[in-house]
Amino acid sequence: MERGTGQLKPIGEMTVLVTGASGGIGAAIAERFAKVGMNVVIHYMKSHEAANEAARRCMEQGSGKVMTVSADLRSREQIERMREKLESHGLMPDILVNNAGISHYGLLSDVTEEIWDEVMAINLKGTFLCTQEMMPHMISQRYGRIINVSSIWGLSGASCEVLYSTTKGGINAFTKALAKELAPSGLTVNAVAPGAVQTSMLNHLDQDELKMLEEEIPAGRLAQPDEISSLVYFLALPESGYINGQIISPNGGWLTKGGFIMSTEKTVLTSFDTWKKFLGDRVQQAEKMGMNEETINKLAYEIGDFLDEKVDPANPSNRALKELWEVGDENERRTIACLMVKLAKQNA
């Protein structure tokens, strides 16, 4: 059988729709396609100014058409209106990048049904609705590329991000199943599952935490958005047509390490009320002595005793911290101690 079944357009005549493209990875993906002259549709939900700025950068770098469209991905009606607008402008996508998504930090015991429904609706239902609305055009021309932006947490899971991990795991399963369904029609469906990327999603980490995170990643650094966008672009090319149903994770080798720093910080934060008074006085004493390796080691020893003797295991957030401490090696316990010290100092 010959490779591909549809009539291929020149790259410069193709159109890509990128959801959640007003900033971060989504904007980088839009710019990557614009550079080769493709028509680019930038979807956004609320960030009108940011979407316009992303569109301006795309127009500066490419010769194709650039359009911004707003739609609430939780609403089939709004996605239908978005499709109708694209049809009226002759910009139905040959390539769909489902990038839009939101995250939620917190223990599962604290997740309300409303929060669960919102994250599920945007991350998973939105991907389903956009795909369902856009794929008939691709099927009719017997050519198309659907690329879903997942996450490393969809592969490994993350403590304090059970909900987010669940949605990304769902996207991975959606990708694999839909690839089988659409392959006979000349379409491919793949997912990109990035590790830690230098975007605003990491703004809550200070320089010390970023350094610890980089040290945890075997590559020794964070990914840049353009490294993710380059992979997405390759998966959209005709030359990638035999790659189908795959979850590709550009993570610098981080998957093998488990994402200890980021999941630890969340666990420490959620249990703050339990240990803030205990550690507050000790941090003040340690600072008088000089916050060095010796004092951190001493604090780590005292934290271990405190968790053994004082923590109520019936409290989910306390239990999570205690279990994290018990399974950690010496270096990981020092990391936990450093994160606890930082938080205690911030709230002194």
The structure class reads alpha/beta
CATH architecture verdict of the largest domain: 3-Layer(aba) Sandwich
CATH topology grouping of the largest domain:
Rossmann fold
CATH class of the largest domain: Alpha Beta
Q: Cα distance, first to last residue?
A: 69 Å
Q: Give me the CATH superfamily of the largest domain.
A: NAD(P)-binding Rossmann-like Domain
Strand numbers in spatial order across the main sheet: 3-2-1-4-5-6-7
Q: How would the global form be characterised?
A: elongated
Number of strands: 7
* Radius of gyration from CA coordinates: 23 Å
**How many domains, in number, for the residues?**
2
As a percent range, the share of strand residues is: 5-15%
Count of individual helical segments: 13
Q: Return the string of H and E elements.
A: EHEHEHEHEHHEHHEHHHHH
Q: What proportion of the residues is helical, as a percent range? A: 40-55%
The main sheet comes to: 7 strands, parallel
The low-confidence parts are none
- Average pLDDT works out at 84
InterPro entries: DUF3243 (IPR021637), NAD(P)-bd_dom_sf (IPR036291), Sc_DH/Rdtase_CS (IPR020904), SDR (IPR050259), SDR_fam (IPR002347), YmfJ/YflH_sf (IPR038292)
Family: Belongs to the short-chain dehydrogenases/reductases (SDR) family.
EC number: 1.1.1.100
GO biological process, one term: monocarboxylic acid metabolic process
